[in-house]
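Key result, reporting period 2: structure in, sequence out.
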């Protein structure tokens, strides 16, 4: 992709609110002739280009973008006392403010740098901050304090609380994950990175904030302002979001300078997603502490109530996770479970403690010794074993042989968890399809198409009012290839790659198989949208080993216009939902 020129950025900014604009007005905004607009647009990044809709000379984007022009940014900054600088592309907005801080505290104080694209954006603990143009609101600003760095430990929670307050006022049901992550359930909405410089007897805090404005398609377990805003609330523009954030940050940081963190403790506790809940603290992927999050100190450290008493954990290379499941689940029992998913080609399993998945595994049926080994390490008389299987009795027996306790094999049901099964004979309905449907409710409450890409490909429909309507079954990619090799002359050859217009037999085979699967998904999605009403969203939840390549092959406009989520072990989540509501 060629670098974007000033006229590209002006055109993007003019369209970024998602409202229709006539090409003549867009030409004036970009400083080009109207007939040149289309050529400019064809040079945009692919994920932006597919957002455009045209009708009678009117252009609009199907969703707004976090893209600004300099005048707009300057006006928003001035409202809240900031001097602004707009960078279309940079390494990191934090780095720019840090360089100013090293020159003088006065130069950095109140300097607001907004970046449209960062090549080296970063988050806490050295993590890379992933972003694509227009999807994320990213900015940094400097704020000067008299205190040394070691007395500003609560600055991160304070900044998170200010962002939380602004987002709540805009209708976004956000919470805080200690110390300063912004989350909706288990999905990350945004993060805050604070870096400090001591210069001239003062501390310059560089506060960098990144918030997903629209859903980032390449980031797992993410949520966006546009996706999370409460029903009935007016859509939030990027300009309104930035202004609201700056207003709250200005107010809260002023109070923090004068009074410290004490006045904010109660509000932070109320906003903390994990307050009074069991948590695990991890370092380098390993659990180092477990306990109940009992609050935070005036220095911003976590108060963790463990079996041996209270432990104070400071912010550092430790991350906080409430468990493995994607949404908070209240559970009244302390039971332990081993959940089994008996697919056609392999067995998958998950160990569950106190409602959270703590470990997962998988193995082919020819060698399930790993399951037996894990039982020796993790099993016990208090572990209840529950499974779903489509693999047949022989393979079920192979799995059971590794375990000293009986397995409760569950099949499809007429109804469960408020979902009614419309399959004519539920006893012949695949258990995997049923528990995929139950599991999908962890990821969406909308109508959804639930797809499983394994040995077979299943495409099922679930309405927003919890009617499971059934669906289709077709051969998976391997079975399609086998059929072509066995039943068709001269086609027993390696499969190529997927192309829109394949020009070799190998690529034609790969593309035909993928088109068959994608076509089935698109047809079911269209049918379900017609069933529930065109004004209601229909999401796509897809699982199985072939899921990523199917999503990649779907039309770009479909993926942009709809919520598409790839979920591993969807059957396991369905089993977990079922056991927790018994």
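The corresponding designed sequence is given below.
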């Amino acid at each position: 992709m060629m670098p974007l020129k000033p006229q590209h950025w002006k055109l993007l900014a003019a369209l970024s609110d998602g409202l229709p604009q006539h090409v003549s007005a867009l030409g004036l905004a970009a400083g080009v002739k109207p007939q040149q607009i289309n050529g400019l647009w064809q040079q945009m990044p692919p994920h932006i280009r597919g957002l455009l809709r045209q009708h009678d000379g009117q252009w609009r984007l199907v969703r707004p973008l976090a893209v600004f022009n300099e005048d707009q940014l300057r006006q928003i900054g001035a409202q809240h006392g900031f001097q602004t600088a707009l960078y279309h592309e940079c390494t990191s907005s934090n780095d720019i403010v840090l360089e100013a801080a090293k020159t003088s505290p006065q130069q950095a104080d109140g300097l607001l740098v907004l970046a449209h694209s960062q090549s080296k954006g970063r988050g806490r603990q050295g993590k890379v901050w992933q972003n694509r143009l227009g999807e994320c609101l990213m900015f940094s600003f400097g704020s000067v304090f008299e205190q040394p760095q070691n007395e500003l430990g609560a600055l991160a929670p304070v900044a998170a609380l200010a962002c939380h307050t602004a987002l709540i006022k805009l209708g976004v049901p956000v919470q805080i994950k200690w110390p300063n992550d912004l989350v909706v359930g288990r999905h990350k909405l945004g993060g805050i990175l604070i870096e400090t410089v001591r210069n001239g007897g003062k501390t310059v805090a560089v506060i960098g904030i990144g918030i997903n404005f629209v859903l980032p398609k390449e980031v797992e377990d993410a949520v966006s302002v546009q996706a999370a805003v409460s029903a009935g609330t007016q859509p939030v523009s990027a300009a309104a979001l930035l202004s609201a954030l700056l207003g709250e940050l200005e107010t809260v940081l002023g109070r923090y300078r004068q009074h410290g963190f004490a006045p904010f403790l109660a509000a932070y506790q109320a906003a903390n997603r994990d307050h009074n809940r069991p948590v695990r603290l991890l370092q380098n992927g390993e659990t180092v502490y477990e306990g109940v999050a009992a609050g935070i100190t005036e220095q911003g450290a976590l108060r963790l109530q463990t079996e041996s008493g209270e432990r104070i954990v400071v912010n550092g290379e430790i991350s906080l996770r409430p468990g493995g499941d994607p949404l908070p689940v209240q559970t009244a029992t302390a039971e332990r479970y081993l959940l089994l998913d008996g697919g056609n080609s392999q067995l998958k399993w998950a160990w569950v403690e106190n409602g959270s998945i703590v470990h997962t595994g998988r193995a082919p049926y020819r060698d399930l010794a790993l399951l037996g080994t894990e039982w020796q390490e993790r099993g016990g008389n208090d572990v209840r074993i529950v499974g779903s299987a489509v693999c047949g009795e022989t393979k079920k027996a192979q799995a059971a042989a590794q375990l000293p306790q009986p397995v409760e094999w569950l099949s499809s049901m007429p109804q469960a968890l408020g979902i009614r099964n419309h399959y004519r004979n539920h006893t012949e309905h695949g258990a995997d399809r049923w528990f995929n449907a139950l599991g999908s409710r962890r990821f969406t409450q909308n109508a959804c198409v639930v797809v499983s890409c394994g040995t077979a490909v299943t495409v099922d429909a679930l309405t927003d009012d919890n009617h499971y309507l059934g669906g289709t079954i077709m051969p998976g990619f391997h079975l399609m290839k086998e059929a072509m090799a066995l039943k068709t002359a001269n086609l027993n050859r390696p499969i190529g790659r997927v192309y829109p217009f394949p020009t070799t037999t190998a690529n034609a085979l790969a593309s035909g198989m993928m088109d068959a699967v994608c076509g089935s998904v698109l047809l079911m999605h269209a049918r379900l949208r017609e069933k529930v009403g065109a004004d209601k969203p229909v999401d796509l939840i897809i699982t199985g080993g072939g899921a990523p390549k199917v999503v990649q092959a779907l039309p770009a406009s479909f993926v942009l216009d709809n919520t598409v989520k790839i979920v591993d072990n969807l059957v396991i989540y369905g089993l977990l939902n079922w056991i927790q509501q018994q």
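Confidence is low (pLDDT under 50) at residues 323-334. The longest helix spans residues 505-532. This case is discussed further under Risks and Mitigation.
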